[in-house]
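> forwarded from #structure-qc
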């Protein structure tokens, strides 16, 4: 019932269309039920009594009932279609809005393919249930109850047949629904798996072709596709069992009624017109039972999809803005401080990703962060923009706890160039304006120059160059530089580079660092794998297994003989072990095409 109440609320302004559709169905059904009574009267009072006037008047009434029922059926089709499509649009909008409000922690709980299925397939299932199920859901009970009443009025003795058949049909329907309902949830999960496989293969199509793994991928897709086909076959082969069961019941009932009714006519207990009208009610009552059974099957599948949609809508965002009346809406400066910070991605995780972190980055300074894979570098900077919340301790930006800020204001003040660079389909201009929707072409070009993206703009068509889907028309290094330019257009207080020049050659990396050093009033936090990218920073933080191992400048860390930093410098050729002097980094051209 809670699922049905949820759907009723989700109709929103389309509830009027639902009400009008229900009125059309009710009146249409009543008119159709009146036709057998009129037909019985035509035969008994008109044909057998040779009264032509009765034949014409009752016949005209039947035609009139049929015509009005046709108009009402057309009205129902219009209103129900509008209500179903409106419901689907509302559900997709609510789901998308819910996903947009999710924190990274929430998104970690859902597969992307599952979210896509819930917004498309599941909503379509609900729409189809409304379009194809609303009419029989209304007509079925009305026709069943009124048909039974009118058949009892016509002949109580013949109506006994219905009361013998109905319990058998009810038991059969209950068994079918009980068998099929759990299979619908399995079917939707299998659909999730198919979408996941498709998304993965289409995203990685270049790697698949490069490694000549088309056959392997086709085999893997065939397994998932076959599993979906097998699940669908099991599900729908059980669902269609209601048709032969109801047809058997209808034919047995018709045969018994004709035999009993024929004997009653021969004995003078029943008139031919009454039996003819009664047989019409047999068809209507059996059709109504068939409708009801189909509604139960549709409802069983729709409820599964409703539950999946509600899981998305009922998920509480793990991170929310501070209350509007107390939220801080301006970041004073770019200072960043971590105070006794611990962090884990899941509450039930055995170990923290970050432990006992105490750091301070002065406003306008440049901070480098080094550490091995899995040391917590990305996790650390994600706390600054409040992409995740610290498990314990405080993260302060501009002297205020990040939880005190309005989220939009905080994230506007913190620019992040993510480790995984993301560009969208469209032109260079479209992508850069994510940083500032009102930026002029001059401002866009200035940001490109600062990120050294101007070097290749002419080759890809300038600001109007089409990047293709996900930026496939540019190389990894070019993509990184465009992402840096986009972040610069935000004019943030804090600018975070999460290993964002890894695909850029050393010479270009040096030019980008020189351009960024000219930015004043911006705190720059640079995660890097190359010591050369951070050796000029005001402060270098070395993380080791989620803990702060050392903090200092390049010269200070070398003078202190820090083992991790010294090893990094030696392995990358930055340090001459014999002389102990810093050597210029070699220039390579890797990463750009």
């Amino acid at each position: 019932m809670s699922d049905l109440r949820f759907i009723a609320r989700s109709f929103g302004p389309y509830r009027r269309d639902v009400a009008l559709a229900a009125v059309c169905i009710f009146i249409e059904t009543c008119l159709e039920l009146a036709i057998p009574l009129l037909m019985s009267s035509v035969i008994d009072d008109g044909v057998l009594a040779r009264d032509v006037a009765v034949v014409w008047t009752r016949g005209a009434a039947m035609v009139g009932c049929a015509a009005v029922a046709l108009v009402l059926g057309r009205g129902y089709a219009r209103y129900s279609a509008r209500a179903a499509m409106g419901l689907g649009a509302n559900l997709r909008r609510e789901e998308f809005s819910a996903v947009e409000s999710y924190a990274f922690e929430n998104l970690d709980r859902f597969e992307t393919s599952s979210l896509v299925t819930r917004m498309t397939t599941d909503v379509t299932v609900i729409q189809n249930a409304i379009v194809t199920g609303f009419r029989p859901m209304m007509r079925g009970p009305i026709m069943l109850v009124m048909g039974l009443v009118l058949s009892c009025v016509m002949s109580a003795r013949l109506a006994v047949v219905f009361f013998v058949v109905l319990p058998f049909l009810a038991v059969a329907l209950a068994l079918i629904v009980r068998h099929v309902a759990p299979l619908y949830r399995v079917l939707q999960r299998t659909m999730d798996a198919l979408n996941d496989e498709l998304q993965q293969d289409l995203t990685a199509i270049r790697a698949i072709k490069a490694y000549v793994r088309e056959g392997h991928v086709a085999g893997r897709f065939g397994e998932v596709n076959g599993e979906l086909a097998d699940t669908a076959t099991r599900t729908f082969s059980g669902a269609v069992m209601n048709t032969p069961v109801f047809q058997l019941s209808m034919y047995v009932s018709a045969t018994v009624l004709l035999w009993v009714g024929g004997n009653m006519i021969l004995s003078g207990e029943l008139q031919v017109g009454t039996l003819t009208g009664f047989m019409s009610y047999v068809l209507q009552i059996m059709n109504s039972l068939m409708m009801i059974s189909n509604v139960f099957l549709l409802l069983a599948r729709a409820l599964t999809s409703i539950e999946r949609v509600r899981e998305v809508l009922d998920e509480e965002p793990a991170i929310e803005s501070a209350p509007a009346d107390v939220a801080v809406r301006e970041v004073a400066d770019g200072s960043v401080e971590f105070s006794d910070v611990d962090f884990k991605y899941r509450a039930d995780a055995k170990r923290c990703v970050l432990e006992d972190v105490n750091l301070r980055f002065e406003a306008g300074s440049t901070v480098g962060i080094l550490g091995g894979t899995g040391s917590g570098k990305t996790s650390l900077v994600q706390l600054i923009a409040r992409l995740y919340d610290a498990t314990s301790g405080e993260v302060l930006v501009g002297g205020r706890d990040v939880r005190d800020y309005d989220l939009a204001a905080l994230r506007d003040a913190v620019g992040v160039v993510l480790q995984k660079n993301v560009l969208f389909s469209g032109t260079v201009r479209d992508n850069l304006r994510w940083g500032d929707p009102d930026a002029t072409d001059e401002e866009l070009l200035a940001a490109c120059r600062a990120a050294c993206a101007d070097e290749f703009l002419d080759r890809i068509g300038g600001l109007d160059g089409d990047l293709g889907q996900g930026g496939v028309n540019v190389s990894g290094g070019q993509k990184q530089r465009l992402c840096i330019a986009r972040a610069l257009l935000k004019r943030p207080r804090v600018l975070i580079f999460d290993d964002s020049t890894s695909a850029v050659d050393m010479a270009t990396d040096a030019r980008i660092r020189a351009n960024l050093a000219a930015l004043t009033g911006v705190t720059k936090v640079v995660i890097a794998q190359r010591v050369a990218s951070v050796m000029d920073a005001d402060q270098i933080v070395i993380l080791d297994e989620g803990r702060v191992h050392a903090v200092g400048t390049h010269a200070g860390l070398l003078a202190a003989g820090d083992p991790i930093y010294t090893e990094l410098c030696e392995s990358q050729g930055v340090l001459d072990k014999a002389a102990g002097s810093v050597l210029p980094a070699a220039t390579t051209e890797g990463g750009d095409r």
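QC bot note: The chain is about 60% helix and 10% strand. The two ends are 60 Å apart (CA to CA).
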